[in-house]
């Protein structure tokens, strides 16, 4: 049976991926704002955006797979971007997990030190910046962008390492409650996962640009 879906052009695939990037970036922004300002109602929007990412990923991945079976070279170098919807869905999962942490922090009044608060805010900002840079690289075709993204990602991982060491000091000095400790470490893990998948995305974008 032939394809019933309309043929995706390389530009249409790029546009669909960019829409998903915007959704994931908005999820990070809303979760950051909820962490900072306590408007937990915004976390409902995060859940809605997460559901939208899941829907878009399945639809787009299935569409690309069906098209490439029928017309293997129809997307050209843009075919390298076919991995990005799944990566963005996974990033959305991590942001939803962060949102649940934020919800718990406010619901249970979990105490964070000023330093811990500042570290988490910085990680939110850096995570959002990484996704923005991925989108810009796809949009502009800047071949130098993937290397910059990986460098910024390495800096995010370094910040996570430093935050973990500062956290350990707080635990040793008993200035951190067990609940705050578990939430803080979980949030670091989610940020690490976001960076890990952005790094993989940067490699896919780089491949698409080098052969374009």
Break the fold down into its secondary structure elements and pairings.
Layout: H1 10-37, H2 42-70, H3 84-107, H4 114-140, H5 145-172, H6 178-210
Helix pairs in contact: 1-2, 1-3, 1-4, 2-3, 3-6, 4-5, 4-6, 5-6
In short:
The chain is mostly helical. The chain has 6 helices and no strands.
Key structural traits:
single chain; 212 residues; mainly alpha; Methane Monooxygenase Hydroxylase, Chain G, domain 1; 6 helices; 80% helix
Overview of this protein structure:
The protein has helices at 10-37, 42-70, 84-107, 114-140, 145-172, 178-210. By secondary structure, it is mostly helical. It has a single domain (10-210), classed as Up-down Bundle (Methane Monooxygenase Hydroxylase, Chain G, domain 1), CATH 1.20.58.220. The protein is elongated. The chain starts with 9 loop residues before the first helix and ends with a helix. The model has no long low-confidence stretch (mean pLDDT 94).
Q: How many separate domains?
A: 1
Tally of separate helices:
6
Assign an overall shape.
elongated
The succession of helices and strands, N to C, reads: HHHHHH
Tell me the radius of gyration: 19 Å
Within CATH, the superfamily carries the name: Phosphate transport system protein phou homolog 2, domain 2
- SS-based structural class? mainly alpha
CATH topology assignment:
Methane Monooxygenase Hydroxylase, Chain G, domain 1
Helix proportion range: over 70%
Query: Whole-Å distance between the termini?
Result: 32 Å
Percent strand equals under 5%
Report the count of strand segments: 0
Low-confidence stretches: none
Q: Kindly state the mean pLDDT as a whole number?
A: 94
Please describe the biggest sheet, giving its number of strands, its sense, and whether it closes into a barrel: none
Query: Architecture, according to CATH?
Result: Up-down Bundle
By CATH reckoning, the class would read Mainly Alpha
């Amino acid at each position: 049976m032939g394809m019933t879906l309309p043929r995706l052009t390389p530009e249409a695939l790029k546009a669909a991926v960019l829409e998903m990037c915007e959704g994931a970036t908005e999820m990070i922004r809303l979760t950051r704002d909820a962490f900072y300002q306590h408007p937990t109602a915004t976390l409902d929007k995060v859940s809605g955006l997460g559901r939208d990412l899941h829907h878009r990923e399945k639809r787009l991945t299935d569409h690309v797979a069906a098209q490439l079976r029928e017309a293997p070279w129809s997307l050209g170098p843009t075919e390298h971007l076919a991995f990005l919807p799944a990566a963005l869905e996974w990033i959305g999962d991590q942001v939803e997990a962060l949102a649940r942490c934020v919800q718990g922090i406010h619901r249970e009044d979990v105490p964070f030190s000023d330093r811990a608060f500042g570290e988490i805010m910085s990680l939110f900002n850096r995570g959002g910046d990484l996704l923005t840079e991925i989108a810009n690289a796809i949009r502009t075709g800047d071949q130098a962008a993937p290397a910059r993204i990986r460098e910024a990602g390495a800096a995010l991982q370094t910040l996570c390492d430093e935050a973990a060491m500062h956290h350990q000091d707080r635990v040793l000095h008993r200035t951190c409650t067990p609940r705050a400790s578990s939430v803080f470490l979980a949030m670091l893990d989610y940020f690490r996962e976001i960076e890990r998948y952005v790094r993989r995305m940067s490699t896919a974008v780089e491949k698409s640009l080098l052969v374009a």
